[in-house]
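PROTEIN FOLDING TASK:
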Amino acid sequence: MSMVVFASLGRRNSLGIFYKLCRHGHVIDGLKFYPEINKIGQNVDLVTCNELVSVLCKKGKPRQAELFVEHMVRMKLTPDITTFNCIINSFAEKGDSLGVLSIYDKMVQQLIRPNKYTYHGLLRGLCSGGNLDEAKKVFAALHSAPSAVDRITYNILLQGICSSGNLEDALKFCDDMVEKNIFPDTHTYTFLIAGFCQKGSVVPAIILFQKMMEKALFPSNVAYNCLIQTLIKDGQLKAASFLFWEIMKKDNLAPDSTVFNTMVDGYAGCGEIEKAEKFVSLMKKKGFTPANKHVTDAALD
């Protein structure tokens, strides 16, 4: 599009096109359009810039969004909390702890006060990036800002602790959570159950599962799937089968292909081929591909 056409569009139309390009995910076209808007003496506002930052982040391009923020500052446009939180969350999704810390530092330098959503993204990025010690330091510092600490804050760090395998620390952290009158939810128990299952500790996982049910917290698909796989590996096929059919009764839950294949392998390994074949048939009806070729071939005979 030529400069003449740009100029003829007028401020309202040209900015409108720029906004639509960004809104519909045409980031490259939007970025090409942006300097042309400036050349004809038009300036975009903070809302429009934030829209472009948001699109870049949704496209998984937080580094480009960070560079665009530097351009905003040169244009005398001050990024706000929305700008920074968006980029922090995008880096967090990538597990880029350095990127998260970099943006957080810039935010502080701009004298923008972080809110709880900032800390959610910061902790998530540090934990997923393997920087658990730094995440714990950030969390400890939040006690001076109690409004920034909620159940989500606790759950993010709890998931990081569980993933590290330090389950004793995770349980203590959960106790601290209750002492602060922040009570566990489905996510809390799911992280703990998954952590114990990952270590093959089926008894603590079952105890947590039972506590979850006693508190009228309905287990998630992840909790069921983790527990079923761990029970099978522990040789407890009957218990695993019971849980499997409990999931099948629920409208909002469904075993995934990994659980189906684990059930097939479990029965096949015990010599119960007929039951394994039934699971293969059920798998196919659900649109899953059985991994155990021997049982699959037997089911076809």
